[in-house]
Amino acid sequence: MKGSPELSFPKVRSVELEGFTLYSKMPDLKIEISPGVFCLAGANGLGKSTFLAALNFGLTGIVPDPERELKSHTRHEGGYIDEYFRYHKTASGYTESFFTGRIADTDRDEASVTLEFDIGERRYRLTRGIFDGPGLRVFEVRHNGEVEFDGEGHSMSDREVEYHGRLTEAIGLGSFEQFVFLQHFVFTFDEGRHLLLWNQRSLNHALHLCIGSDFDRANQADALQRQMERAGSLARNKQYQASGVSNRISTIRDAIGEDGEEDAEGPIPEEMVRAHRVIGENVQAQQDKVAKKLGELRDAELKWATASSRLSSLQAEFSREFSRHVHKRSRVELHPLVAATLSEDECAVCGTVGVASGIKVRINEGHCPLCGTGLPNPTPDEDSLARLKEIDGQVAGSREALEAATAEKERVSAEVIAAEDRLNALRDELREFEEANRRVLLEADSGGSAKVRETINRLEEELADLLKQKEAKYQERDKLMRQLVKLQRELEQQYEFAEDEFVPLFQRLAYAFLGIEILVRAESNEGITSIGLSLILEMRGSVRREEYQLSESQRFFLDIALRMAMAQYMSKQGNEAPLYVDTPEGSLDIAYEARAGSMFAEFVELGHDIIMTANINSSQILRRLARVCGRSRMTIQKMTSWTELSDVQVQEERLFRKAYDEIEEALKEGGD
Fold first, then answer.
1. How far apart are CA 178 and CA 349, in angstroms?
2. Which residues touch 441 (CB under 8 Å, ≥6 apart)?
3. I need a labelling partner for 68 at 20 to 30 A (CA). Which of 46, 177, 262, 436 fits?
């Protein structure tokens, strides 16, 4: 019986982003990642989750679609883990969609993420273009400072293949796809919120890799699970097809009589067959007529919309031209002082009341109402008048065109309704005729009653073959299930072996958050639709089988505790697996904030790194972490300077500074 796998995982030491327009003040940035806790602290909407996604993209080459579960969507061979990676790599399009909008079109060619990470004595460096597709721009490996592989002379795809092989070997896993699964489903807790504890398939894949006998067995179990479920699906498909054939046989038998006895061979009434054909042709002709009328209606609606738009445009143009024309002839009346005086009948300069009539007289006589100077005679704007007449004529013509288009649309619409009513009537006539003459028409279609019997015999043979195929697929499923159950029992034995170390670790981390003891037991399921282990939690004597039996914060942080326990159990000392956490602090009760920080701190004390995001606020998570870890084991990266803040955030920036200062003070005091 083997113990823990003792795998060596990448410890990220720097992240370099280029062309990330989202970070408007720092689109090109390089961040050093110190051991312990690295916290990217900011505000909502600044791109904290994007940073984690970019880091994961650098490591795995994909951004996981939060809607994509670990299940089969294709007919490819292999297991669910292989299919998950293959889908995101070649068919998803989610990765490109995720970064589009966060990166401007002008930066697409240059946009990239560069990572440096350590595994044991080796330092790895890679650069991955965001929109390059599969492949690496740069891949280098140094061993104790000496270049072991520099990627020169290799294509981007060759560097990717080299990276997959070297990383898999350095970690100690069986395939790169297994690393992708662990990175996305175990080591990363992000806004996708895929919970392990209540997803048996993901949990069992994780347990196979964490405490299973070996990684080939994990791959085998993965493939068997998928093959078994596919065989069951194919068997159900055959049953569905068989039901269709069986219904067809019943329909034919009903048509030739309840007892299934056929009458003696006799002539088929030609008049009835001809009448059926005529009605069918009438239905088809009417369908064609309806389709034609619908096309005419679309044309009429387009003509109406065009005429309506043209009329509206001309009316707006007439209004603008008329306004310009009036303005030219009424400049004195439109002067603010004159207009106010005329409107209120009160001088806008001295306040004298009853002066409007005198001002109108002076204006009509052609004098300035203020100084009496003679005004130049307004010259008629012949061009403006001509344009108004032209537009007015166009408006009249357009109105006539709209009226004609409206009449045409209404006429064609009525014709469509009439044609559809006629089609429905013909269909009813055809259906009633076929119901009344099913047997004769069936024999005519088959060539006589003897031919009907031949058709039934052929369908019965087809039915028997489908049922035979169904049974074969069920037998295949059962055979695969027995093999999977055997592997499952090996996993159960391995779990029992690991229980003394793995379960107490999980319980200790969970206690750090909950403050109460939890009991954990494994429960085996060997049903056809559910084969695997489930972890059952018991709190204060109450079993919590379903996720809804816990609060949101309990679900999230217990799941994080499980991931921490798995990471610790499978890691080799000195090469412990980091956790990548988009902190779900919004779900926390205030009483649990500090305890969540304590749980994170305990994980770091076990030798692991945490790369996390959090809001800069009054939450106790970061302050508790800072007090426990101190500057030697915790780094805060303030990202409020990376991009533009919203107006609300700018107004309350002092609150950010205050919260950040409190965290800095806790860092100074911490680590003792």
1. 87
2. 272, 273, 276, 434
3. 46
Strand boundaries in 163-269, DSSP class E: 188-189
Residue 170 contacts by C-beta under 8 Å, 6 or more apart in sequence? 8, 119, 120, 122
Question: How open is the CA angle 629-634-638, to the nearest 5 degrees?
Answer: 135
pLDDT digits (tens, 9 = 90+) for 304-352: 998 888 888 888 888 777 766 665 555 677 676 777 788 778 887 888 8
In the chain, what are the domain boundaries?
11-198+546-669, 233-268+443-473, 270-441
DSSP conformation class of 136: -
Distance CA 337, CA 628 (A): 75
Report helix, strand or coil for 206.
Answer: helix
| Summary mean pLDDT of the chain | 82
Query: 92-120: per-residue pLDDT in tens?
Result: 678 888 998 889 888 999 999 999 999 99
- The CA distance from 32 to 12, in Å, is 9
| pLDDT at residue 245 greater than cutoff 60 | yes
Q: What is the pTM of this model?
A: 0.64
- Nearest of 197, 189, 217, 166 to residue 5 by alpha carbon: 217
Residue type, 631: R
297, with CB counted inside 10 A (0-12, 13-18, 19+), is: middle
